[in-house]
Amino acid sequence: MHALTVNQISFNYRDGIPTLRDVSFHVEKGEFFSLAGPNGSGKSTLLRLLDRIYVPRSGTILLDNKNLTEYPRSELARRIAFVPQDTAVQFPFTVLELVLMGRSPHSRGAMFESEHDRTVALEMLERTDTGHLAHHPVTMLSGGERQRVVIARALAQQPEILLLDEPNAHLDIAHQLEIFTIIKKLNEESGLTVVSVSHDLNLAGAYSNRIGMLVCGSLAALGTPGDVLTEANIRSVFQTNVLVDRHPATQSPRVTLLTSQ
Questions:
Q1: Rounded CA Rg of the chain
Q2: Do the domain assignments include residue 208?
Q3: Pairing assessment for the beta strands 66-67 and 58-63 based on DSSP bridges
Q4: Angle, vertex CA 47, rays to CA 46 and CA 51, nearest 5
Q5: CA–CA separation, 161 vs 30, rounded Å?
Q6: What are the CA-CA distances from residue 244 to residues 14, 16, 184, 237, 252 (Å)?
């Protein structure tokens, strides 16, 4: 069954220049779906449309076969969590306070968090290797620490669908793998549907069920990592030469940039 269905959506900002043009695809329930493509191809815009931060100029987006515009924002907040590339925090909330904000869609008007809310928040802090930061001010964290805390807040929402815009931004290689492994485990064990924007084609290839590749606001390729991450596709979309072979351990596509001679 489709968790999300995107039907011929188009979108442009106030300058009138089209950002997305007649894009159509679906995301299955429990799927790990990645969006790839060069800068400016419309990936982040598409993710914001899926969270109804933006509304398409034309076309429709369906959540469980119902138009996204028909859902109350409160229900969307319980079902969809969104992690942006950068999250600015102006006030010195503690890490635990920030992650507890992810529980607000479930509070239903309660003034204070419950013991269950605190248990969920602390569990997500531990999962993202930030439990030791629980009482630190968010404003004092490094970029990588803050990114992991924001992911913990999204996971504390216990959503059905998780939207990730460059989740590995600011993270060192160890935490990149750790975060993707955590999300993939939730995807496989809890049926969490994941839509991730990633510039790292190797991570997308290793963790995704399918990949949609965007270029100039249009869908250039869609399919399994093996179908999409080909030398021809990458050369056409990114205008660069690569070698694509199979990773010896995972058998997922492995993309190596070929330096010019």
A1: 19
A2: yes
A3: antiparallel
A4: 115
A5: 9
A6: 39, 38, 23, 15, 10
Round to whole Å and give the CA distance between 20 and 7. 12
- Report how many domains make up the chain: 1
**Which distant-in-sequence residues (6+ apart) come within 8 Å of 254 by Cβ?**
202, 205, 244, 245, 246, 247
Q: Is residue 146 part of a domain?
A: no
Q: What is the CATH number of the domain that holds 208?
A: 3.40.50.300
- Coil, strand, or helix at residue 194? strand
Distance CA 87, CA 162 (A): 16
Give 8-35 as a DSSP string. EEEEE-TT--EEEEEEEEEEETT-EEEE
Structure tokens at 138: 């968010």
Q: Which helix (H) or strand (E) holds 196?
A: strand 193-197
For residue 56, is it within any domain? yes
Nearest CA-CA partner of 126 in 96, 101, 147: 96
Q: For 200-243, how does the pLDDT look when each residue is reduced to its tens digit (9 = 90+)? A: 999 999 999 999 999 999 999 999 999 999 999 999 999 999 99
- Which residue range(s) make up the domain with 69? 2-88+159-257
What pTM was computed for the model? 0.93
56-98 residue pLDDT tens? 999 999 999 999 999 999 999 999 999 988 776 778 899 999 9
**Residue at 114 is within a domain:** no
Q: Tokens 């991730």, residue?
A: 196
What average pLDDT does range 153-158 have in this prediction? 94
C-alpha to C-alpha distances, 158 to 23, 32, 100, 138, nearest whole angstrom: 28, 16, 12, 21
Burial string for 124-139 (b: 16+ CB within 10 Å, else e) reads: bbebbbbeebbebebe
